[in-house]
Amino acid sequence: MISICPTNTRIVKITHLKWNLHWDLQFPEIIVSQNGVSLMWQSIFPEWIQISDKSWYYEWQTTNKYINEQNLNPQQDFSGNIIRHNFVLGLALKAEIEAFESEIALSLTISNGTTNTFKDVLSDGGCLRARSSDFMNHEEVKRSFVIKDSRLISMSELHRTGSLRCLYRSDIKDYDKDWINPSDWFWGRSNDKIDRPAIVGAVAGDGSKAIVIGYQSSFSASQNAEYHCLHSEPSFGDISPDSAITRKGYILFGKDLDILAEQLRQRIP
Question: Which CATH number fits domain 2-267: 2.40.160, 3.90.79, 2.70.98, 3.30.2400?
Answer without folding.
Answer: 2.70.98
